[in-house]
Amino acid sequence: MNVDQILADCRVPVLGICAYSGTGKTTLLKKLIPELNRRGKKLAVIKHAHHNFDVDIPGKDSFELRKAGAEQMLVASHIRRALMAEKVTDGDPDLKELLGMIDQDRVDMILVEGFKKLPLPKLELHRAEVGKPFVFTRDEAIRGIAVDAATRLPDDLALPVLDINDVDAIADFIERFAADWKPVGYAPLGSCGCDDVERKQLSVAQGQARILAEVKPVTATETTPLLQAQNRVLGANIASPVNVPQHTNSAMDGYAIRNDGQHDSFTVVAEVLAGHGYDGEVQSGEAVKIMTGAPLPAGVDSVIMRELATQEGDQVRFEGAIETGQNIRQAGEDIAEGATALTAGKRIGPAELGLLASLGLGELPVYRKPKVAVFSTGDEVCQPGEPLKPNCIFDSNRFTIQGMLAKLGCEVVDLGILEDTEEAMAEALQAASEQADVVITSGGVSVGDADFIKPVMERLGHIDFWKIAMRPGRPLAFGKIKDTLLFGLPGNPVAVMVSFMQFVQPALRKMMGEPDWQPQMMRATAAEAMRSKPGRTEFQRGVMQLNSLGQLTVTTTGAQGSGILSSMVQGNCLIIIEECQGNVAAGESVWVQPFADLL
Ligand SMILES: Nc1nc2c(c(=O)[nH]1)N[C@H]1C(S)=C(S)[C@@H](COP(=O)(O)OP(=O)(O)OC[C@H]3O[C@@H](n4cnc5c(N)ncnc54)[C@H](O)[C@@H]3O)O[C@H]1N2
Ligand code: MOO
């Protein structure tokens, strides 16, 4: 696990303190912690112990109950609580898990003692008399070193050097470290970096980055009537031509008054319905009966809801205190005239449609839809609706791909199933690349013999055949014929959909003008054990739901073969098991990517 993965869930700075035993680490920490407390920093400390330690005292109830077999013993008073949990691990305890046990809402930083081998940012402590080598010479994560007077350091040392006896200076260093610290962004699709060089595979994130680097957003826009702009991408910033709401108006059915504290009873002088106004100016002691949404007459500053009013004849009285300004919606409080209501690149959904309608706009500039050509290959692939030939299968990939393209709002050109000959492929690919912005095919990108698609792609354009460290979806072809992007997705039906979600979707969204689009991802608790090989990102199909405790949990849909398309139907999300994560035990957390974006 690399350091970013260890620190991925940390919301407060984490600094290691490393030293050989005898350096006086604890002595220093005993002075440093009160100094940092004095400076307003609340600390958590994690200490690595090498032996079978105990924190409880024989004879105490908690000790006896734990010894009697309680897996977890939580002892708590109104002052302090301590959880003692039995957990035997093969090697060192897992620092990521330990960090997760700290209540990060209650501390400003975490100091970690021990875990010397982890590439965690650290402060090294060194005393010459201990007679041990420096750590910084072999650990690039050392951020500073505190030494005694007898220590000789190299002249050209590029690290901050502190006096190990100067607690103030060390506290300053730690405060600076904390001030400069930034949380690690989450990168569930990144590489764990274990064996990048040997494996000759790309991580999902590397594949995505290479693809995105080749994508040019469309710039041409067209004007479309408002309702037809649904699921299109806005082609220009929209400045509001009006205030929304246009008029300062009442938020309640009730009475509008001037709240000057002069009167207990008010004379009702008029009634204003929504869509109407009151031309006069309301005077002190007067009230206007008003409906929700009706423009506020001149002279009033507060509205009292009808339920608190008692009207007898033309006199009205109110229960309770009146706060000046209550129940009034100010003109322009949602969107002020001239303000940017929506920016170019926004995908228009029902809320955006409503908002644009509230500005009074009848038509909109939107980016041109990208044109995407789709075909299937393979002699075994048959058109649904026609008789199935012996030893063949029906083409499902062209339908999942077109379905996802339609959801994204692309213009689709269906080229059908191509005959598996070199000429047919070449002709179709050439023609497709001339009319489309993107060509997507499925199948034939692995190492099989009967595929002409590879040599044809290589002849007509520039194509790379990648192996992505993921499952499903390992083989992926990506390239260009002139300016047209070409995606060769793997043939297996689930692999097609997963590769589309991870690689084609971000590319198309960038092309459509949605800048910096990011998929929705959430953390969920695995409700069952899940298998995955470290070194590749595993995308399992999952069903996420809230359990009775309100936690987001996820189970797999069962068999995970990359031909089992029903898993995509049963699931509502992809479960992402990160490259380094390996097998997941029930109760551990995983990332989930809901299908909602696309499926
Ligand atoms: N020796 C190796 N064999 C395979 C490897 C490998 O690395 N070495 N990778 C496996 C993986 S992973 C995948 S995924 C597939 C991808 O292979 P291709 O992209 O070459 O796809 P095909 O061999 O043409 O087909 C695979 C599978 O998908 C079915 N298929 C193809 N098109 C459609 C379609 N339009 N609709 C429905 N199903 C389709 C096809 O019948 C095959 O069953 O390769 C593995 N093998
Ligand atoms: O891409 Mo393949 O689907 O991993 O079997």
TrEMBL record:
<feature type="domain" description="MoaB/Mog">
    <location>
        <begin position="373"/>
        <end position="510"/>
    </location>
</feature>
<comment type="pathway">
    <text>Cofactor biosynthesis; molybdopterin biosynthesis.</text>
</comment>
<dbReference type="GO" id="GO:0046872">
    <property type="term" value="F:metal ion binding"/>
</dbReference>
<dbReference type="GO" id="GO:0061599">
    <property type="term" value="F:molybdopterin molybdotransferase activity"/>
</dbReference>
<dbReference type="InterPro" id="IPR036135">
    <property type="entry name" value="MoeA_linker/N_sf"/>
</dbReference>
<dbReference type="GO" id="GO:0006777">
    <property type="term" value="P:Mo-molybdopterin cofactor biosynthetic process"/>
</dbReference>
<dbReference type="Pfam" id="PF03205">
    <property type="entry name" value="MobB"/>
</dbReference>
<keyword id="KW-0479">Metal-binding</keyword>
<dbReference type="InterPro" id="IPR036425">
    <property type="entry name" value="MoaB/Mog-like_dom_sf"/>
</dbReference>
<keyword id="KW-0460">Magnesium</keyword>
<dbReference type="Pfam" id="PF03453">
    <property type="entry name" value="MoeA_N"/>
</dbReference>
<keyword id="KW-0501">Molybdenum cofactor biosynthesis</keyword>
<keyword id="KW-0808">Transferase</keyword>
<dbReference type="GO" id="GO:0005525">
    <property type="term" value="F:GTP binding"/>
</dbReference>
<comment type="similarity">
    <text>Belongs to the MoeA family.</text>
</comment>
<dbReference type="InterPro" id="IPR005110">
    <property type="entry name" value="MoeA_linker/N"/>
</dbReference>
<dbReference type="InterPro" id="IPR027417">
    <property type="entry name" value="P-loop_NTPase"/>
</dbReference>
<dbReference type="GO" id="GO:0005829">
    <property type="term" value="C:cytosol"/>
</dbReference>
<dbReference type="Pfam" id="PF03454">
    <property type="entry name" value="MoeA_C"/>
</dbReference>
<dbReference type="InterPro" id="IPR036688">
    <property type="entry name" value="MoeA_C_domain_IV_sf"/>
</dbReference>
<keyword id="KW-0500">Molybdenum</keyword>
<dbReference type="Pfam" id="PF00994">
    <property type="entry name" value="MoCF_biosynth"/>
</dbReference>
<dbReference type="InterPro" id="IPR001453">
    <property type="entry name" value="MoaB/Mog_dom"/>
</dbReference>
<dbReference type="InterPro" id="IPR005111">
    <property type="entry name" value="MoeA_C_domain_IV"/>
</dbReference>
<dbReference type="InterPro" id="IPR004435">
    <property type="entry name" value="MobB_dom"/>
</dbReference>
<comment type="function">
    <text>Catalyzes the insertion of molybdate into adenylated molybdopterin with the concomitant release of AMP.</text>
</comment>
<dbReference type="InterPro" id="IPR038987">
    <property type="entry name" value="MoeA-like"/>
</dbReference>
<protein>
    <recommendedName>
        <fullName>Molybdopterin molybdenumtransferase</fullName>
        <ecNumber>2.10.1.1</ecNumber>
    </recommendedName>
</protein>
